Amino acid sequence: MLDPHFNKERLYNLYAEDGLQFVTGNDHLFSDTWLSWENFIFKGDTTREVFTSAESFRYASGKIGYICNVEIPVQLQFKHYGGQISNYHQPLETFFNLATGVRINFDLAGKRMGIAGIEYLQFINNELTKTRAAGVTQGYASWVRFHYNYKAIYFGSYYWKSHNFFAPNGNAIYSSVSTREKDFVIPDRTIWTNSLYLTVHPLDYLEIYLGFDAYYDLNLKHMDIALALHLNLEKLLRLATLKN
Predict the structure, then answer these.
(1) From CA 141, how far away is CA 162, in angstroms rounded?
(2) Is the per-residue pLDDT at 55 higher than 60?
(3) What are residue 172's phi and psi, to 5 degrees?
(4) Which residues pair with 162 in a beta bridge?
(5) Complete DSSP assignment for 153-221
(6) What does pTM read for this prediction?
(7) 139 near 127, Cβ under 8 Å?
């Protein structure tokens, strides 16, 4: 899912998930429907129930004039913090996030020079129970993104502008609500992101990913940088034991 909706760093800090997932797709349609039950409770428990359900859908057209194609993504997500049967005395919260837009991809010199794309996405968010202590119950955002892929290299430049945007599972850097300071809100965010990724496969079962992201907040005049090194093994390896 899109990073403002579902933080890509969850791959490392919240990898384990319990629930259901249904994935279907072909050359033109892709659908990923899932339910993640993050905290199940019984009557009398002192914690709250937490689960997330979502749908990620994408339609991709065939080639138009042999040089481009169009993609239409639609993503929606519900996150519920319950506790009707527990002894947790905080109000219920149900968050809804929706994103949709359009992307156009261009083959450069028949893909010999790579693929470039331009994308526009519109986000809306709503806290359906209207109980947020920080007062942010609904908001919106626009995201304009440029993409360029050439062999193992990806470069992206994104312009984000939002008002009272919040997604409980999303990357906090795009949020109007602070995850560090209670009830601290920056209503309007304007962020320019530049990303550079390198993905190589030195072996059939090994993927090495190097990533660099630079986030510049145009309102606060502040830069944040993220670096990543990711190794993905698709093979069981026997670990040798040493004997004295």
Answers:
(1) 4
(2) yes
(3) -65, -20
(4) 141, 189
(5) EEEEEEEEEEES---TTS-GGG-SB-SSSTT-B--EEEEEEEEEEEEEEEETTEEEEEEEEEEEETTTT
(6) 0.88
(7) no
